Description:
alpha/beta; Rossmann fold
Amino acid sequence: MGQLIDGKLIAQKIETEVALQVADLKKQKITPTLAVILVGDDKPSQTYVRRKGEAAQRLGINFILEKFPTETTTEQLLKIIKKIQKTKNLSGLIVQLPLPKHIDTSTVLNAIDPKFDVDCLTNINIGQMVMNTNIVMPPTPGAVLAILENLKIDLIGKNITIIGMGPLVGKPLAILLMNARASVTTCNSRTKDTKAKCLTADVIITGVGKKDILRGDMVSPGAIVIDTGVEFVDGKMYGDVNVAEVLQKADWVTPTPGGVGPITVAKLLWNTVVCAENINK
């Protein structure tokens, strides 16, 4: 029988370090500032933004939320980003995803100055990640690495299977793990025999957003399973992993909620402070 990974505990450790860094910056009369742009009325997005705001304020980071209606255009959003980037002491800017379908997401994200890109989604920052010259990493992949570090897992040569190749988790995480010299296998909706690829893995990471996509018979004894997926069914939050089944095989499993989520928020604030330090060098 495996154990659940306590994401809240890991997040608290990161937040403690962030609070110390914020205090140091404030001694230099620098207040790290995180701005979030929220377009439309997507309920999960509103929940995520609220959690980010609460955590930022708890740690002494100035938090600015700019809300705009669903019908906001790409051109209007580009002007808004330009204006917000002139904010005093700005050290992080997020455009909360997903955006309404009529907005050109790539154009909007790349309007963010890379020095403020705490979600690490601009082409420049993704390129730096590929070349292993990045100063920050996307918060959710960063949360996965924080979990593995907390478990004292040496990534060199580890067999790691990632299910889901989305731009927010799967793709950047594959890059980061390859940079750490792990042996990475990726699976998408067209992959043949995902189960076989999972059974050879020391670590399985999911990022699909579909309940029960990983079952107990897909996991080898002693594996570590990290679930970054979220799906709401009848108003209740689920991850990708059938935790009850997987706990029978794996050594460690993240629950949903209470697993990767709190750490992702903590890593976002970590990025905000790192960017504040970098801007004010």
